[in-house]
Write a structure and sequence with these properties.
The protein is an all-alpha fold. It has helices at about 5-30, 35-45, 50-60, 65-75, 85-95, 100-105, 115-125, 135-160, 180-195, 200-210, 220-230, 235-240, 245-285, 300-320, 320-330, 355-380, 385, 390-420, 430-465, 470-495, 505-530, 535-560. It folds into two domains: about 5-330, no CATH class; about 350-560, Methane Monooxygenase Hydroxylase, Chain G, domain 1 (Up-down Bundle). The radius of gyration is 30 Å and the shape is elongated.
Length: about 575
Amino acid sequence: MEFGILDFFKLVGALGFFIYGMKIMSDGIQKVAGNKMREILSAMTSNRLKGVFTGFFVTSLIQSSSATTVMLVSFVNAGLLSLKEAIGVIMGANIGTTVTAWLIAIFGFKVKIGEMALPIIAFGLPMMFTNKDKLKSLGEVLVGFALLFMGLDALKASVPDLKHNTEVLEFLGSYAGNGILSVLLFIGVGTLITIIVQSSSAAMALTLTLLYKGVIPFEVAAAMVLGENIGTTITANLAAIIANVHAKRAARAHFIFNVFGVIWMILVFPYFLKLIDNIWEPFQNWMQSISPDIDKSKEEFQLSLFHTFFNLINTFLLIWFVPVIAKIVTKMVKPKDEMDQEFHLEYIAGGVMGTPELSILEARKEISKFLDVVEKQLKLLPKLLITHDEKKLNKIYKKIAFYEEVTDRMEQEIADYLAKVAEGELSEQSSAKIRAMISIINDLEKIGDTCYQIAKTIERKQNHKLYFLPEQRENLNKYYELLFEAFQFLKHSLNDNFDNIDLEQAKKWENKINAFRDKLRKEYLRKIEKGKYKLESGVIYSDVFSNIEKIGDFIYNVEEAAAGKV
């Protein structure tokens, strides 16, 4: 069996194919996922037992724990599942993957969802060319899902064909019978095979085949199954490479869960094999009603039984320690920076408080946090003018885009919370405060959007190799400083619990911002006419200072809403 340089590049390409499919699917999920999908997932995983059942059901359906955990990582990456919810689903996925062994043992075949990839693309691709955003995003999810499975199939096709070269592993039979060392050796072999074929189900099929042909004894096959439980975690960890810190933690939790199970199983391995042997006889009588030829594949069924009992007991042992596992992986995987983390509301995540007044107070705290996010975005804008290194610029663009997504989510979630508060009995004063806060978060989100528009405008300048004159950069820097001072005044006002809003002073800031915009516009038109400003870069310059003025308008709107002028 030869494995040359071309085969190696095929393997690397297949791995890239798989990760690309994962990325498209994850991006599509983030775009298409609305509150309904979030609610459905929350209902399915609202407690640990439901999460376990969800993981079992999904994995039984698609016949791949690797695919389940990859999808799970994308859900966590999209913010649809919390880490604790994900761990429950991972446990269920481990039980669900045992169904494959039973299908092989009983029917001798494995359902391959990969064969459905092209029909799924046939449905998804036309959706990607529609004008409706939701439909387009759904098309991305479907195409990404199909590419993911095609990538998994490509991985399997790009590795050494162990299934048809079982003689490569025949020598391993001679290493059996050396106690715990043999167990450790074959756990390593099982782990390696699963990493190579990128599927615990495929590795399980190979192990069952080797066992059925008498290449390896039962205890060796059982040890290899334990290794396959470790190897299958590699797929989720590969998928998490491009994901945020929460998805990485979910993948790491999968690894810890499986490794812990293998550790305790090593300690009781001989006794557990005896247990399987003892329960085999009554189980055999029941199974003969399903498969009359059970005696011809006794050890295959015993291996399936071993696999199932191991995962059931491991899940039962660890389901009570989900919070502990979550804490461990949180300490293990630290965020690189703020962008690596998924945003979650801090004060109102627990639901509506006992009284409307308390609920409104908590919502105000979230608005203060909202102001901090917008401030970080505003601070990045001047850096776009003084940064010339392309890598650093791209990093700033990504940060601004990240904060824009955060502001979108904050507005939606705070608005939903305030809508629930408004359903209760409210005084006229409380109703006015809720109306004001809804208007405030709407304008703060618009500031986030406008910052993003400014960043995209300057990115366009960079892509077209256009340049601002030193005078233009200086004017924009002065305008940013003026805008930021106005925002600091706003932030100070809102942090005073909306009680000391000075609309007169706020109007003065608004007038200063408008006057500076008018000055820049007149100067811009005059110099364009005289040919002192290039038209292409001049248009971008005009767009930037016009958008800065818009932010000034939104700042004043927030002041007005806080003063009760809505």
